Amino acid sequence: MLKETLTKAFSDQVNKEFYSSYLYLAMSAYAEQTGYKGIANWFFVQAQEEMAHAIHMYQYIMERGATPGFGVIQAPPTTFAGIHDVFAQVLTHEQYVTESINAIATQTMKENDHAGYNFIMWYVDEQVEEEAGINDILAKLSNFGDDPGFLYSLDNELAARVFVNPFP
Ligand code: OFO
């Protein structure tokens, strides 16, 4: 059975994953309302992924015989200072999530919970991928973000993203 301390850590993380989903939905709405339908799609897919993370982690707590804790999910910001600002805020948020996931990994090691460690390592890798993807978009925005032609092609590129359930 998952220890109480780890149950709390995993439950808090479930809340953060739900918040991430909510944040990306707000970003999707902003992008759509400012005319970037492809970027809105990218955020919508991201919101679905975060929801999948939350549910996956919730199910893991249950599978380990523990009772998940529930809390308030904070309201996300809804106004942004442009597309570059949105992605800059995504990076800051994902760095915060990475720290949180790493702290859980450390805690599972300290508490000798090998199964929990194994579970959370998927998320450690996932955060590396997520940060790399955002850094890539941010680098392009820094280099070419003032060019409307680039923003048009970025919007088209991000329109192609499709949700694939990471835990089928
Ligand atoms: Fe759940 O991966 Fe980002 O936050």
Proportion of β residues?
Answer: under 5%
Which class best fits the helix and strand makeup? mainly alpha
Mean pLDDT: 97
Name the shape in a single word.
elongated
Contiguous helical run count: 5
Succession of helices and strands: HHHHH
Q: How many beta-strand runs?
A: 0
Provide the low-confidence segments as ranges.
Answer: none
Cα gyration radius (Å): 17 Å
Ends distance: 25 Å
Overview of the molecule:
With 168 residues, this protein is mostly helical. The protein is 76% helix and 0% strand. It contains five helices and no strands. It has helices at residues 4-33, 37-63, 83-110, 114-144, 148-159. α1 (4-33) packs antiparallel against α3, α2 (37-63) packs across α5 (148-159) and α3 packs antiparallel against α4 (114-144). It is elongated. The model has no long low-confidence stretch (mean pLDDT 97). The structure holds hydroxy diiron-OXO moiety. Hydroxy diiron-OXO moiety is lined by residues 17, 20, 50, 53, 94, 97, 126, 130.
